[in-house]
Amino acid sequence: MRIDRFIGILTVLSGVLGGCASALAQISDNVVRIGVLNDQSGVYSDITGRGSVIAAQMAVEDFGGTVLGKPIEIIFADHQNKADVGSSIARKWIDRQGVDAIADVPTSSVGFAIQELTRTKNRVFLNSGSGSSDLTGKACSPNAIAWTFDTYALAKGASALVKEGADSWFLLIADYAFGHSIERDLRSFVEASGGKVVGVARHPLGTSDFASFLLQAKSSNAKVIGLGNAGADTINAIKQASEFGITQSGQKLASILVNINDVNSLGLTLAQGLVTTEAFYWNLNAETRAWSERFMKLRQGMVPNMIQAGVYGSVLHYLKAVKNAGTDEAKAVVAEMKRMPIDDFYTKGARIREDGRVMRDMYVFQVKAPSESKEPFDYYRLVRTIPGEEAFRPLKEGGCPYVGPQ
C-alpha cells in the first residue's frame, strides 16, 4: 500500500473515532440513568406504581438499550405521596447516583417539589403523573415536560355536562395541590358554561370514609357531584355513593380523573355511565392494542392506563432527544425534545409547547354497560375527540415566567 494512501486512511479513521469519542464523552457518568418516582404502595399504586416502571423499561427496550454507545438504566422508588420523601429520594438520585431524568411522579404536591429540584439541579422532569395545570403555569420550569394530562383539560371535558342540563354542581375534592387545581379549573368551566357550583367538600388524601362528604353532597341537591380525586379515593367515593343511594336518587357522578384501572376495580355495574376524559385507551386502535397486550403480559394481565402509556412515551422521546443532541445535558435535551415532533405508538405528530405542555388530543369516553362489553377491559365508548389546541389552556393564559410575550 502506498504510504500516502495509508496516512490518508489513518487520518479519516482518526477523525471518525475522534468524533465518536467526542459524542460519547457527552454522556455523564457513561450511563443515561432515568429514575421512575411514584406511588408503589398507596392510593395511586395501581395507576402508576410497578406498571410505570415496566412502561419505562419497555421504552428502553424498544429504543435499543443503549444511546450514543452508552447503557440506559431505569431505577425506581416509592415517594409515598409525600413531597419531603420524594424530594429526599430525588436529591439522592441526582447527587449520588447520577440520575439524568426523573419520570412519572403522581401526586401534584410531589410533582411541584421535583419540578423545582430538577430545575435547580439541571435535570429533566418527564411528568406523566402530576396533573396540576400550574405545572405549566406559574410554577413552570424550562427543564420539565408535561406529557399526559392536566386539570385544565380534564375539567374542560367534564364541564361539557353543563350543556346537557347538568347546571348545578357539588365538588368533592382531594385536599392537596391536584384537587385544588381541579376545583379551580372545574369551577371556572362550569360557571363559564352557565352552571353553578353550589358547594365544596375537601377530604384528606387516602381517606377511607366518605360518609360525611357524600351526605353534604346529597343534601345540596346538586344535579352533579364532581369528584376531584383519583385512584383509590375515587373508587371508594363511587362505591360509597352507591351505598348511600345517591346515584339511584338521580344525582350524577362526574369523576374528573378516572383511570381504566379504577373502572376495573369498580366493575361495570357500578361504573357504567361514568364520563371521563383521558389521553389514552388501550383499545383505541391496532397500535394501542398491540402495545397494551405486550404490557399486560409483563404486568400479570393488568391493563395499562394513560399515565403508564405516558411514561413510555416520555422516556422514548427523551432518549431520541439525547441521541439527536449528542449529550444528556438537560437543557440541550429539552430543547431537542421541543424541536422534534412526537412519534410513538399512540402519539403522532404532537408538539411540545414552549411551556413544556405536550399538545396532544384528549378523548371523552363513557363507561359501557355490562351488556355492551365483549371482552376483558372492553370498558369505554368514545364520545368525542378534543384536539390538543382546544383541550389545553392557551399559552398566553398560563403565566409561565419562562415564556416570552404572546
Structure characterization notes:
- The chain contains 15 helices and 15 strands.
- With 406 residues, it is an alpha/beta fold.
- The strands form four sheets. The protein has a six-stranded mixed β-sheet, with helices on both faces. A four-stranded parallel β-sheet has the order 8-7-9-10, sandwiched between helices.
- Helix 12 crosses helix 13.
- The longest helix has 22 residues, at 3-24.
- The radius of gyration is 23 Å and the shape is globular.
- The termini are far apart.
- The relative contact order is 0.13.
- Mean pLDDT is 91; it is low at 1-25.
β-strand percent reads 15-25%
Net shape: globular
Secondary structure: number of strands: 15
Stretches where pLDDT is under 50 for at least 5 consecutive residues are 1-25
Main sheet: strands, sense, barrel: 6 strands, mixed
How do you describe this structure in short?
This protein has helices at 3-24, 49-63, 83-97, 108-120, 151-158, 177-192, 211-219, 231-243, 260-266, 268-271, 286-298, 306-325, 330-339, 388-391, 395-398; strands at 32-38, 66-67, 70-78, 101-104, 124-127, 144-146, 168-174, 196-203, 224-228, 252-255, 275-278, 342-343, 348-350, 362-367, 380-386. With 406 residues, it is of the alpha/beta class.
